[in-house]
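Weekly modeling sync, notes
Attendees: S.R. (lead), two postdocs, one rotation student

Agenda item 3: backlog of single-chain predictions. S.R. asked that every request posted to the team notebook include the full sequence so nobody has to chase files. The rotation student volunteered to paste the first one in as an example of the format we agreed on. Action items at the bottom.

Example entry:
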Amino acid sequence: MSAAYATFGLVPAFRAGGVLPDGGYQIHRDFTDFVVDGKPLLYRFPDLDAVTPLASDVPPEVLAAQVRGLLLESEPPLPGGRFVVYGCPECADLACGALTAVVERDGRDVVWRDFAWQDGERAEPERDGYDGTGPFRFRGPAYRAALTSLLDRPDAAPAPRPHVLVIGPRAGVPARLAAALRGTGIGADVTPEVDDVPAAELRRYDAVLYAPGVPEAQRAAVHAAFTRSGVCAAHVDALAPIVPLLVAQTEQALDRDPLRPRRITTLTADRHTAVLDVATPCRVRLLAYRRDRLHRVHVRELLDEVLPPGSHHLPLDPRAVRGNAYVVARTTGTVLTAPVAP
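Predicted structure, as returned to the notebook:
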């Protein structure tokens, strides 16, 4: 085994929720990702849609048990000394599949090795392993310090889920949008105005989305109310009255950490080409949304594949983006939206 050391750390991350083309929901999950040699470990697995067991929405005792397991203070949960490194973001059931690894001591060091995809009691590294990933040898004190930092407040409540305030009438698109956001795990409320809302209540919200048709004077009044309350929320103007598109816009607005690395950095589109700038290899799904003259919503999947780093010019079917159309690009941890330019 190589004696070279890798650095170990932790970083906040999220898996964006959304409304799927079939009407189902993809759940929003906030979690803590592992950082190996300065890079999120998840980025080494381009096709993976998964989260670590260190989720922000689990009870403190569950999080503590996961941390103490990785500290090797309890027995491994899987045969062969294996631990779940990334699991299903929807249910965390091993039957859905999980990326596991052997975590073991080697003197004062801790080693992660034999990464493999597993959907049963035992892993098959020879068949389902990730050649070229690991083993990683971590210095024990730094490894333990990073993980025990998550146990500093063992009695703290789970991190609150994101909350969005939708400005608009309490029926129609705003109501459907709020219901869809709740379906993805994001708290959402609808109100036509906030003049009588206490400052403490406004501080609950991470983003404000203005539904289509909200007058400029009403938007200005909401901005002023949040400013008076000292609330630094993201303010988003709806692109179009298309609920899945607005959910994607909301997810994009909630991603506000300027230091967090993004796997997709830019998205633009016209009638013939979508341009994506990809920072690290990842699976990208590109969807087009439009409304026809009868206000019916149409969605078309344009791409679903792993893209290498670089700028990608993707040809589009003009029929999929005619009229007022919009594109949404998704990968783990990043959602971008853009109108299709004429």
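Discussion: group reviewed the output briefly. The helical segments are 60-70, 125-128, 140-148, 173-184, 199-202, 216-228, 243-254.
Action items: rotation student to repeat for the remaining queue; S.R. to check formatting next week.
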